[in-house]
Every structure is written in structure tokens, then in C-alpha cells.
Amino acid sequence: MECYDLPDPRMTTWAKAIVNYSVVVKPGDSVVIIGGAPAEPLLRAIYREVVANGGYPIMFPIFSGLNADLLLHGQDDQVNWINPVERFLRTEADVVINVLAESNTKSMSAVDPVRQSMFQRARSEILQTYMERDASGVMQWTITLYPTDAFAQDADMSTGDYAEFVFNACKLNQPDPIAAWLELAQEQQRLIDWLTGKDEIHLIGPGTDLRLSAKDRIWCNADGRKNFPDGEVFTGPVETSANGYVQFSFPVISGGREISDIRLSFENGKVTEASAAKGEDYLLRTLETDEGARFLGEFAFGTNFDIQRFSKNILFDEKIGGTVHMAIGAGYPNTGSTNKSAIHWDMICDLRQGGQVHVDGQPFIRDGRFVV
Predict the structure, then answer these.
(1) Is residue 2 part of a domain?
(2) How far is C-alpha 155 from the chain's CA centre?
(3) Phi/psi zone of residue 216: left (φ > 0), alpha (ψ -120 to 50 degrees), beta?
(4) Strand, helix or coil at 254?
(5) Are residues 133 and 188 both part of a single domain?
(6) How far apart are CA 195 and CA 192, in angstroms?
(7) 60 and 190 share a domain?
(8) Which DSSP letter does residue 133 get?
(9) Is 114 within 8 Å of 263 (Cβ atoms)?
(10) Is residue 74 part of a domain?
(11) How many domains does the chain contain in total?
């Protein structure tokens, strides 16, 4: 497969930002570096930076389509089995660096959703442990994405143009990328300071009128230290607080499938009605994964105005400046969320044309721009 061959200096810049900012690798840290084989130039650069910092690098290159092979051809006991590497990554590693690099983003499209739910349920315990370790600060993680032909095709871009899109979103074309992320962190903290202590969030837009509560919940500053790129402020809404309805602007891409025009209705926090113009059966099956799958685990504002187009990849799309996203399923314990689930599905509302958010009756966003 042909990939965009980025010059080594750009790989080094990227790796330094990951190892010294997104996570901070210290001498003696066990550092799992996991990523798709097409990302070899970046994986090697990260490995070198981990060694330079005194960490213990553990490299796990992976190939596209392996999970599809397992779910399509494996027995139930094989699907439910958690291999020692996966368990170590979730429950023991000090640092986890994940580099997405798919050569085929549709490899899971033929897999029965029931099998996918089985796979996710089997991993719910180690996922919960992973999130608790993150919340307590005993481990660090980050995820980034290497531009491949497959990702570029999903975004309807040439691979070269898509690579530039990735670098701009990650602020790697800035003279000092870390300084640029620190500047965004400061602006996001201003928003968090305004939101802290407030209660009701009222989201209004096309097909949307939804109220929920963030009372006594913690707002988190997503400034490139977890996701790379980043750019959001998020919390875990009060589990029983969502009431109303919402129409999501962009498709959800999950398991090689596209679920579009998703509409959800909530009563006392729980999804009571759900529909989609495309992929509705898959949506309904996912909502039955477990009890927590019908409740919100996250509510967030996208703040990265270097990302302005939908690319069919949630790592970028949920950060689009002027959007809101929320996730059904597992909440992050560090926000105060108590919702537990084997899934975490992010869905995006674009507020840039007619959308608005009021917080405790005060305007917060209008037409995709913060007005506080």
C-alpha cells in the first residue's frame, strides 16, 4: 500500500510532541507503542524519543483487518478471550501511545453487530480498569493518526492533502507546536472557568431541543495531552438529566459501518426512541449492548478551529470548532460520571448554522462561536 512519505524532520517533530507533551515519558516508564504497520516512520520516531527519555519501549505493530478475521471466523470462546498483551496494555503499562493507521477502514463492515457487541462486552472490565487508572493518574495514554490512503479516501481528499490536514489539525506546522497547544489550553480553561458551578445546558438546533445537567460535574481541558489532535472541553452529564430530542449532523462511523441521520429522544437520561436513515438496525443493536449504553457518558464542546471539515474520523470530527458532541455509553470517571458501559459512541451536532447553547439561561454558543 502506498502511504504519504512524510520527511523525517516532520516525524521527529511529531514524535517529540507526543512523547514530551501528549504524554510525558519518564525514565523507567513502561511505554506501549501500538500502531498500524503503515505508520512505521512515525512509530520508529516515537520509539527513538522514548529511548531518549529513558523509558522502556514495547512496540506492537498491528495489521488491518485482524479483528475482522477473529469475529468472522473465530468461535465464541476465541472472541471472548483477552490476550495477555491486551490485558497488559489496559491494566499494567505506565504509558500507552496508540497510532491509528488503517489500510482498510471498512474491514469490519461484514461482521455481525452481535459479534461486535460480544467482543466489547468481554472487554468491559479491563476498559473500566483502564479508565480508572487514567482518572487516578497512575497511567498516561494518547492517541494520534497517521495519514494513509484509506483515511484520505474516507475524507474525499488526496493523501498529500489529507496529510496536510492532519498536520494543521495537530498544530505541527506551527513554529512551536507545544506552545500552540498551551495557548489553546489557556483559552479552553477560560471556558471551563465560566462553565464550572453551572447546572443546566440547553442545546437548540435543527431537529434538536435537549436539556441536561452538569451540576457538580467536572469540566476537563482536552488540550492535546490525550487525543492528538485535540481541542474540546468535556464533562460527564448527570446520568438521569437528559430530556428532549437531538438530531446529529454527521454520520457515526463504527465497525466499518456508516450510521447517518441519527435521532435520539431522552427521558430522565435514558434513550427512549432512536432512529437513523442509514444503519438503524446497527444503532438499535448497539443501544442494547448493556444498561449503560442508553445513557450519556460525555457532553463536550469542540474548540479546534483548525479543523473545519468533516473527515469521517471521530478523532478529528469531534474537535471541529463550533460543534457539540455527546457520547452514549461509558463516562470518564474524572468528570464525575458514574455511567458504565462496554461502548462509548461519540455523535456530533454542528452548531455553525443556526445552533445555540444556553447555560443556566445565559448564551454560551451562537452559530458555532463562543459568546461568553
Answers:
(1) no
(2) 17
(3) left
(4) strand
(5) no
(6) 5
(7) no
(8) H
(9) no
(10) yes
(11) 2
Longest dimension (CA), the chain: 55
Q: Which of 359, 108, 122, 100 is nearest to 254 (CA)?
A: 108
Same domain, 236 and 191: yes
Same domain membership, residue 356 and residue 226: yes
DSSP string over 96-135: EEEEE--S-TTTTTTS-HHHHHHHHHHTHHHHHHHHHHHH
Cβ atoms of 159 and 148 closer than 8 Å: yes
Give me 312's grid cell: 469521517
Domain that holds residue 45: 8-169
165 lies in the same domain as 187 = no
Both 165 and 290 in a single domain? no
What region does 329 belong to: left with phi over 0, alpha with psi -120 to 50, or beta? left
Identity of residue 310 = F
Written as nine digits, the cell of 67 is 479483528
Q: Compute the distance between CA of residue 258 and CA of residue 89 in angstroms, rounded to an integer.
A: 29
Residue given cell 445552533 in the structure block: 355
Whether 200 and 100 map to the same domain: the answer is no
Q: Grid coordinates standing for 315?
A: 478523532
Mind listing the pLDDT tens digit for each residue in 87-136? 999 999 999 999 999 999 888 888 888 898 899 899 989 988 998 999 89
pLDDT, one tens digit per residue, over 116-125 is 889 989 998 9
Give the separation between CA 184 and CA 303, rounded to whole angstroms: 8
Give the domain CATH number at 116.
3.40.1830.10
Kindly state whether residues 181 and 327 are assigned to the same domain: yes
Give, for 257, the enclosing helix (H) or strand (E): strand 257-259
The yes-or-no verdict on residue 298 having pLDDT over 80 is yes
For the segment 240-292, what is each residue's pLDDT rounded down to a tens digit? Answer: 999 999 999 999 988 778 999 999 999 999 999 999 999 999 999 999 999 99
Residue 3 lies in a domain: no
pTM above 0.85, yes or no: yes
User: What is the full DSSP assignment across 158-226?
Assistant: -HHHHHHHHHHHTTTTSSSHHHHHHHHHHHHHHHHHHHTT--EEEEEETTEEEEEE-TTPPPEEESSSS
Query: End of a domain among 118, 136, 169?
Result: 169
CB 57 within 8 A of CB 33: yes
Around 305, how many Cα atoms within 13 Å sit in the side-chain half-sphere? 9
**How many Cβ atoms from other residues are within 10 Å of residue 236's Cβ?**
25
Name beta bridge partners: 258: 253
